[in-house]
Amino acid sequence: MSEAVLDDATLIRVEEVLRAACGLTLARSLRRSLETALARASAACRLDPEAFLRRLLLRESSAVESFIEHAVIGETYFFRHPEHLRTLARQAGAHPGPFFHVWSAGCATGEEPYSIAMALLAAGIPEGRFRVLATDVSGRALQRAREGAYGAWSLRRIEPELEKRFLMARGEQLSVVPQVRRSVDFRRHNLAVDEPPVSGLGAIFCRNVLIYFPPELVRDVLARFVAALAPGGLLFVSPAEVPLTNGLGLETVDAEGSVALRVPTSGSTRPAAAAPVARSERPRPLPSPPRRSAPLPPLVAEPVPSPVARVEAPAAPEPLRLALDAARAGRFEEAEALAREAAKGLVPEAYLLLAMVAEGRGDLNGAVEAVRKALYLEPQLALGHATLVALYGRMDRREDSERARQNALRALEGLDDEQPLRGVETMTAGGLRQALLPRTQAGWQGAR
Asked: How far is the C-alpha of 269 from the C-alpha of 249, rounded, in Å?
């Protein structure tokens, strides 16, 4: 069996296994990404793909475990949505109690919880006054997170002063310093079936996870979050997920143009928990992961658009998909060569990837030129214009940066907030609109 021969009926059955195990459900346009997970999982189990598929559909625990390890982890990187982290730091600084506890739910390979710890330390919160609990359904992802070593792709948005303070060289990668690692606890947890591991939390981060759950499970998970937060505690979700919290009685808090949700404090009526999902509909708990004697190979997940609106998105051409895989694995020369091959097919996203590679090696002019080529092919490529906002900002070309921001906003006109955008990073139209709101910034701890 190759990645191309699964029929739609079989893919639906495969998705049903995924949903039963950990609650995830996908739009039709995203089911084909499961073929890659199947191929990698069968290879990891040293099974013929046909044999692995039979075991998976019979829901044998080892096959289900391996499949989930290769299917559920999306792309993440350090300091994604930094406005959320700055809002969190202000909340922690004003916290009256002796201890501030944060939960990163669905932490993937650890970039988010480490970013949370770095943000709190950078804001002057002492190491012993906070803890970050980081959980995920994937033992494979948690193993990588505990190792705390990352390549340039995961670190492409971190500010230089934070990189210098909180990361140290470890071969060709950078490793999280002990001070940050001591502040983060990693634990296996299944959001679909498990109760919150702690209560009285000051904040919960669960970004770009809820959009993959069916509506009835979303309400159940959100009710558990609300119950686990202390009065005044904050819930951070992605911009596309904010509408999913309607009706829970949460207050909205401005997070530098983005939105955080807050549990009402004393004197307000605490929102009631949503009715639980019927037992017959609840996903089954995962089996305990087997002990492994050697580290697993690094996970490279496919980038997927938000499926909230069930919008069909075209699949990435094969050279571009391979280029993205290479970039996430830190093989930048290979990624650049593959992206140039994809660019021969006049694929705008290939030029955006070339821009990222150029920016990563400090060639800002080359990055700008690559983005311009992408926009020549697709003038309404909103993420292309948004990329120029950041590039021109780094080059201190303020007028050009503002012009690019206005062009990006015009490219978003008429698009629903949940519409996935073309590009090489996961982003919805609503999320990009929030990111493009004007705000005063002068570095991590500068004026806001």
From this structure: 8
Dump pLDDT digits (tens) for 105-138. 999 899 999 999 999 999 999 998 999 999 998 8
Q: What is the average pLDDT value for the chain, to the nearest integer?
A: 79
**24 and 90 both lie in a single domain:** no
pLDDT of residue 262: 96
Domain enclosing residue 389, as ranges: 319-435
DSSP 222-247: HHHHHHHEEEEEEEE--GGGGGGGTT
Task: Indicate the pLDDT class of residue 390, thresholds 50, 70 and 90.
Answer: confident
3 state DSSP class of 448: coil
Which token pair is 172? 């060709």
| Top-confidence residue, 78 or 421 | 78
Same domain, 124 and 15: no
DSSP string over 234-300: EEE--GGGGGGGTTS-PEEEEETTEEEEE---TTSPPPPPPPPPPGGGSPPPPPPPPP-SSPPPPP-
The residues pairing with 236 across neighbouring beta strands, listed in sequence order, are: 205
DSSP β-bridge partners for residue 258: 255
- What does the pLDDT average to over 86-98? 91
For 61, residues 6+ apart whose C-beta sits below 8 A from its C-beta are 287
Q: How is residue 40 written in tokens?
A: 């990698």
pTM of this structure: 0.62
Whether residues 125 and 242 share a domain: the answer is yes
Q: What is the number of structural domains in the chain?
A: 3
Band of pLDDT at residue 80, cut at 50, 70 and 90: confident
Residue 129 lies in a domain: yes
Claim to verify: residue 257 and residue 337 sit in the same structural domain: no
Do 350 and 429 share a domain, yes or no? yes
Q: Does residue 349 belong to any structural domain of this protein?
A: yes
Quote the CA–CA distance of 390 and 402 in Å, as a whole number. 10
Domain holding 417: CATH number? 1.25.40.10
Go through 291-302 and write b for each residue having 16 or more CB atoms within 10 A of its CB, e for each that does not.
eeeeeeeebbbb
Contacts of 105 (CB under 8 A, 6+ apart): 135, 189, 191, 204, 205, 206, 209, 225
Question: In terms of DSSP bridges, do strands 130-136 and 184-188 run parallel, antiparallel, or are they unpaired?
Answer: parallel
Quick count: other Cβ atoms within 10 Å of Cβ 344?
Answer: 9
Cβ–Cβ under 8 Å, residues 89 and 120 = yes
